[in-house]
Design goal:
CATH class of the largest domain in chain B: Mainly Alpha
Largest interface: A-B, 57 and 46 residues
Order of helices and strands of chain B: HHEEHHHHHHHHHHH
Helix content of chain A: 40-55%
CATH superfamily of the largest domain in chain B: MetI-like
Number of domains of chain B: 2
Oligomer: heterodimer
Number of domains of chain A: 2
Helix content of chain B: over 70%
Structural class of chain B: mainly alpha
Number of strands of chain B: 2
Shape of chain A: globular
Structural class of chain A: alpha+beta
Radius of gyration of chain A: 24 Å
Chain lengths: ~425, ~300
């Protein structure tokens, strides 16, 4: 009898818990908004609370509260979990590549109607990243990460190399440098940064995902990307590029101590160099990425994020107002640049970048150069399971580096894992 | 005690026994039964998309029966992960418990000096959180800044990579031993201190030296404590997660599915497939129970003197 009753109680509680777990989502949006509106905003940009304070002072009817998050894969997972549990924030910073999975999970709202007015502030390439090539608009672009070539001017002279114009020249320079000093590398291949590799694939003209009609087409192992993988595979096999995991104290020491002479990175690199390689101040310069064919002029994107509005938000209109202000208003853009060290996606924001970063005091035209390079960057459509592809990248290329095996095979493994996951989830795939 | 008898007693006591039980039952339900139940529920479901998956109503959560379990069990990486954990656990168990026993016996022996200091020094690493410990050791494993590598170089040993596929497991075992020995030693040592000193005196009169006392008096009496520490250690090593997860960013040799729990983490929080993660974690729970139970069964008689 006792056990029976206990079982009854336990199952009642269990059912209750399950019901609570399942009854998330589906909250109705309140049609009209009256009185002061409270918005929460998840972001990992530094000092965003100060920028929100400026907005709050000018808009007593809409109060934005910033909740600082850690970036990376976990940030996306945390948001998706919160959305599933029905307690997502109103506004969320979303990396461009994560946006499709947010849309697929119905975690972010289509805000086309609310942000039509600021459409003209963004270039087509960037705007495409928040529409995903559909009729909807799922966020407002905040910053972008056009890639460029960072190099040590003094050490390039010391080792007798010039800034490589093509990737062939890059390979030759890598061999020259490493032949002169076994402890020194021209640059590195990172199996930990799928976003970096994606940027290089974009530069080469790869299209990892595309939409044909009502079906996805996956092209992770397409010709241009294969070319990129083979190129780095060859250099890694010969041991003439650094293949250690970046973002470690070891890597910082190499970067700081002049053991790594260049870095194909993005516009946000000055922040990294300032903190991780302080001794290099005034010795680094930027140039466009090496090209695949002489005379071409392309770049890709590494990183960058948008501000999206949660599907579960009760104040979508107010949230869209704030997001528009944050990413297009002159004052807000100025704050983004100064306080959050962001390279804004809005055209008017890029014009505000005048003083070169302190670290690049030797290169007065840093931002002019960066803006020119940004204009040559081409992106691609991100698919609904970038997280799976990126996770597969790390595993496959880690393994290829360890076994000194073919990068083409690693790319194939990444492609297959991505396709298999999409099939399993039921997405329609173009044959 | 028969069923009827017990029922009668419960009847006489009225609701009081249930009242006493309430806190335990509520806590158990809220924090153990409900999450396990929800996990089991999730493990039977899966999200399916239609078309591009971008429009409204293109996402549905469906019941898939045991599909997630089938996928979990059919994944070769999952079993490769178990194999790695088996190797890891064997090394950790043998070395860590061996060292813990050795230290406990040494500290308990009559001739030891600086016992209190040594005890604290050996125990202290246990107070360092696993992530911090692994980060500390991880930085020591990186070549250019590390005193380990500097020492090796001083002895003419060059090019040792402590984070390569063939060495990274030993590097992890080292962290686990460093962190875990102190705790286990303390459990054993406490037990040793509880042994009446007369036993030793009796043994000495019989002509036993320190070594014989340790091996033939202390170790047998320690058996229950050894069983306890072994079971705890088996459970802890099977669930190895912190060490490989923390070393992963600095090594190319630790995959995202290095240990079974890492696979659960990847599925749930990186690729966003909570359903597969739920199924895999239940499989892991089932597998983890087996070695602990087997071990308990094996040693029950010797350790606890039970007859069954």
């Amino acid at each position: 009898m006792r056990t029976k009753r206990l079982r009854l109680v336990m199952s009642a509680v269990l059912v209750g818990a399950l019901a609570a777990g399942c009854s998330s989502g589906g909250q109705e949006e309140t049609p009209q908004e009256t009185g002061p509106v409270e918005l929460t905003f998840w972001t990992w940009a530094p000092n965003m609370d100060k920028i929100a304070a400026v907005w709050n002072a000018a808009h007593p009817d809409i109060k934005v509260t910033v909740s600082k998050q850690a970036g990376g894969d976990e940030a996306a997972a945390k948001f998706l979990t919160a959305a599933k549990a029905g307690n997502a924030p109103d506004l969320v910073q979303a990396e461009y590549q994560m946006l499709p999975s947010f849309v697929a999970a119905e975690a972010v709202a289509d805000i086309k109607g609310e942000v039509e007015a600021v459409r003209g502030q963004f270039s087509d390439g960037i705007w495409n990243l928040v529409t995903l090539g559909t009729d909807g608009v799922y966020g407002l672009p905040q910053d972008s990460g056009p890639m460029m070539f960072y190099y040590r001017t003094d050490l390039f002279t010391k080792y007798g190399i010039t800034v490589p114009k093509t990737w062939d020249e890059y390979a030759a320079a890598a061999r020259t440098v490493h032949a002169k000093d076994k402890t020194v590398y021209l640059g590195g291949f990172s199996s930990k940064d799928p976003g970096w590799f994606a940027g290089l694939a974009q530069q080469a003209g790869g299209q990892w995902w595309s939409i044909t009609g009502e079906a996805w087409k996956v092209g992770i192992n397409d010709g241009p990307t294969k070319k990129v993988a083979d190129f780095w595979g060859g250099l890694a096999k010969d041991g003439v590029v650094d293949t250690q995991a970046p973002w470690t104290p070891e890597w910082n020491a190499a970067l700081n101590g002049g053991k790594i002479l260049s870095w194909a990175s993005a516009v946000w690199a000055p922040g990294v160099l300032t903190s991780n390689a302080p001794d290099g101040k005034g010795k680094w310069a930027i140039a466009p990425l090496p090209q695949w064919s002489a005379g071409e002029n392309y770049s890709g994107f590494w990183g960058g994020s948008s501000i999206a509005i949660a599907e579960g938000s009760k104040h979508k209109k107010a949230a869209a107002q704030f997001a528009s202000w944050l990413n297009t208003d002159a004052k807000a853009l100025d704050l983004l640049i100064k306080e959050a060290a962001i390279y804004p996606a809005a055209k008017s924001g890029q014009a505000l970048m005048t003083t070169a970063p302190e670290y690049f005091a030797n290169q007065a035209d840093f931002w002019q150069q960066a803006t020119t390079i940004a204009g040559t960057a081409r992106g691609f459509t991100f698919g609904p399971n970038v997280n799976v592809a990126y996770s597969a990248y790390k595993d496959a290329f880690d393994k290829a580096l360890q076994n000194k095996s073919s990068f083409t095979d690693a790319l194939g493994a990444m492609h297959d894992a991505t396709v298999a996951d999409m099939k399993k989830s039921g997405f329609t795939l173009a044959s | 005690m028969t069923k009827a008898h017990r029922g009668a007693r419960a009847h006489r006591a009225g609701a009081t026994p249930y009242l006493y039980l309430t806190p335990a039952v509520v806590l158990f339900t809220l924090f153990i039964a409900a999450p396990i139940g929800y996990t089991a529920y999730l493990s039977l479901r899966q999200v399916k998309f239609s078309g591009l998956g971008l429009g409204r109503k293109s996402r549905t959560e469906i019941f898939v029966g045991l599909d997630n379990y089938r996928t979990a069990v059919a994944d070769g990486e999952f079993w490769a992960g178990w194999l790695r954990v088996l190797g890891y656990a064997t090394m950790v168990l043998a070395l860590m418990l061996g060292l813990a026993l050795l230290f406990a016996l040494l500290l308990d022996s009559a001739r030891v000096r600086l016992a209190r200091f040594s005890r604290i020094a050996i125990f202290l690493p246990y107070a360092v959180p696993g992530v911090v410990a692994t980060l500390l050791w991880g930085f020591l494993y990186l070549p250019s800044l590390s005193p380990i590598h500097a020492t090796l170089r001083a002895f003419g040993v060059e090019g040792v990579d402590l984070l390569s596929p063939s060495t990274v497991m030993f590097s992890m075992v080292n962290v686990a031993i460093w962190g875990g020995t102190g705790f286990n030693m303390l459990v054993l040592y406490t037990q040793l201190r509880a042994i009446p000193r007369d036993y030793y005196e009796a043994a000495r009169i019989d002509g036993a030296g320190e070594l014989a006392i340790a091996l033939r008096v202390k170790v047998p009496i320690l058996a229950p404590a050894l069983v306890l520490t072994t079971v705890f250690s088996i459970i802890a090593t099977i669930q190895v997660f912190t060490e490989p997860m923390t070393l992963r960013p600095i090594s190319n040799a630790v995959s995202s599915t290095w240990s079974p729990l890492m696979k659960v983490y990847r599925d749930a929080f990186v690729t966003g497939d909570l359903y597969s993660a739920a199924a895999t974690s239940l499989v892991i729970a089932a597998i983890s129970v087996v070695p602990s139970l087997l071990f308990m069964r094996l040693v029950r008689r010797q350790a606890f003197g039970e007859e069954r």
